[in-house]
Amino acid sequence: MRTKLIMKIILVLGVFITSIWFSFMKPIKLGLDLKGGAYIVLEAIPENGVKIDNQAMNRLIEVLDRRVNGIGVAESVIQKAGDNRVIIELPGLKDTEEAINLIGKTALMEFKIVGEDEKLGETLLTGSALKEADVSYDNLGRPQISFKMTAEGAERFAKITRENIGKKLAITLDGEVQTAPKINSEIPGGNGVITGNYTVEEAKATATLLNAGALPVKAEIVETRTVGASLGDESIAQSKKAAIFAILLIWVFMIFLYRLPGIVADLSIILFGLITFAALNFIDATLTLP
Prior knowledge:
Helix content: 40-55%
Number of helices: 8
CATH topology of the largest domain: Gyrase A, domain 2
Structural class: alpha+beta
Strand order of the largest sheet: 2-3-1-11
CATH architecture of the largest domain: 2-Layer Sandwich
Distance between the termini: 47 Å
Order of helices and strands: HHEHEEHEEEEHEEEHEHH
Number of domains: 3
Radius of gyration: 28 Å
């Protein structure tokens, strides 16, 4: 009998300690309305015969997710809304304008030969052949974007450079020429650099876009909102005051009316509240305003 009682007490203490840890030690996941940040709505636009279906939207969400991860935003929410819209919530983001610009870009990288009339030829290779991109620096310390291609991309790149020695190879991003160096010899390794008047931040953002890949369909930003955290801070502070006041009233009422059983009931209420909050925090539930 005593052994069972001891086991029950140990179990209750274990649950209590675990609940305290998950309630106070683990960071709480706050929603956009409590933490502040950016709210973005993108709409997929049919273009050049591209059909907007579930497969296209899923690919779009996948690319957007890689871009958001590249920005380094934790606890982001990316979800489909309707047939052709995507909602992106970026809580805790400080530089919202830069993030909005980064997310909305198509980021289509193309390799084209420059003709004698300085006009660009047809697309010979796209960013889909890239394996990775990163920021590097030239001999003068200026930031540039170095890239490495996949095995198949490197083979095609070598063929392009081999067959166009003496010509200029333009590298464009969303139709804008980033660099157009002259091909002096075949480039067999599939490695290269994109130079330009980049700042370090611009080079990092471009490398992030290239690593995430181009948007599979054209998408336009139809709504943006920057949500301040002041309302959330005020709501949290008011909720804490209301909770403390409510608990005190309940404690006084229960103790006055039931004496010792009331104290036991009060402790049970607090334990139940801790367990409930800890369970929500354990499953990474997002806390938002009602």
